[in-house]
Amino acid sequence: MAHTTAPEQGRVADVWRDRLALLLESTGEGIFGIDMAGCCVFVNRSAAQQLGWPAERILGRNMHELIHHTHADGRHYPECDCPIFNAFRRGLPCRIDDEVLWRADGSAFYAEYSSHPIVEHGVVQGAVVTFSDISARRRAQELSRVRELGRHQESVREAERTRIAREIHDELGSLLVALRMDVHWLAKRVADRPELGAKCQGMGRMIDTAVDNVGRIITDLRPSILDHQGLWAALEWQAQEFVDSAELDSDLQLHVAAGVPPPQGPQAIAVFRIFQEVLSNVARHARARRVQIRIVVDDPPQPVLYLDVRDDGVGAAPQSLDDPRSYGVMGMRERAAQFGGRLTIDSAPGLGTRVRLVMPLLEGSS
Length: 366
Known about the structure:
elongated
């Protein structure tokens, strides 16, 4: 059996030490070691870069005072409560993902870190800490939560719109119809009183106007055609309503490939509300003379809805469309994104506006 000599053992140790050093420097995670006083004894390149300090400015520093001194809300973080230091003071490893570390420039970032005691011959000598910046992950999680909340709120709003529309139709609508019949009954009995007959006619016209207004409000809240005839009919109806009321030169084209059923439920509502918002913006802001509307649904088995609205109006500066206060634009984009869709707006002052929605249709959406 061969035995290694002391020089050979030294060379092996050097090789392994070099390999470990190379591993520490090549990893993307930040790694540093601390002694029993909490001072840094080694730090890898990634840790120095993430913390914004040159490595030589970190070595020998108390790491809690340097990078872990304050909570995310600005409260002082006592060293005695630090999970990193507890790894060697109490021999307790830890893994934390809800705290911040602080950079050299005074900014903070959310970090996921673990701390493990370094033990030699049964005695704790310090701890090794591994960390990574999870700010992007936290932002993505927060955005996901906001979008989920938005979807829930939109669902609640649509349910409330539906309830209000039905109550208006059932209660107010029936009352107006009954009132109209009573006025008609009264008018026949005052035929010999011209002034009363004229009054009844005037009341009848006001009731008819009220009935029309109630119907418009009900349609704005929840168009019954969307529930009874589906999205394709609802989009065509909304486009025709817009064309008739806006008094613009128009070009409307609707083509749905054979065998593509209209989506149901939230996706149908999202598409319809986006379309409503686009047409409303044209009517309110564009000052256009002509509008072109294209609605195309391509073939199965993976149909996609393409909705394209162009106008020759005053247009808008691109930066105004990306303004965080452009709530209408933000709302349309969020509605589209909820179902894997994409909404783009091309516009420039004096050159009109083009809004395009590309929406994959969910199979069996409800």
